[in-house]
Amino acid sequence: MKYLVILFVCIFNTLAYNYKPVILLHGILTGPESMELIKSRIEEKHPGTIVYNIEQFGGWSSLENMWYQVQQISQYISNITIKHPEGVHFVGYSQGALLGRTILQANPNHRILRYISLSGPQAGQYGKLVSILLWGTIGMILITTNCT
């Protein structure tokens, strides 16, 4: 009976649910500091969870070529998933969500179990308002005026 209890405890410990590591990726023109609240909340609510807050392409470097960012961040994530063959979860905010989705689609052998897109413009960005915010009303007239 004593050995049966020990066997049960050993099996239970191996089958007990462990939280998977989480990878966070910030949005455009921000950095890992913008994801600190999410990181600290995950660590508070799920103690022992490993959280990777990606520092690459923070600030102005987030404007670099997107394919270059995808390649670099894919390599970074690949290095993480080698350490965690059981898989990881990914949370991307804004541009980080777009990069995450592209990484998933470009790397069919990824080990990302859950992909969470926070404010990711997955269907693109539409409407007059965004353009007016970026260039102003006069800028929009100049951009859309046929100059031929």
Description:
By secondary structure, the chain is of the alpha/beta class. The chain has a single domain (20-123), classed as Rossmann fold (3-Layer(aba) Sandwich). The protein has 5 helices and 4 strands, in the order αβαβαβαβα. It has a 4-stranded parallel β-sheet with strand order 2-1-3-4, with helices on both faces.
What labels would you give this structure?
AB_hydrolase_fold, alpha/beta, signal, four-stranded parallel sheet, 5 helices
What is the count of β-strands?
A: 4
Low-confidence region ranges: none
Shape: elongated
Specify the structural class.
Answer: alpha/beta
Give a brief description.
With 148 residues, the protein is of the alpha/beta class.
Topology at a glance:
Blueprint lengths: L1 H14 L6 E4 L10 H10 L5 E3 L12 H18 L4 E6 L1 H12 L5 E7 L9 H17 L4
Parallel strand pairs: 1-2, 1-3, 3-4
Helix pairs in contact: 3-4
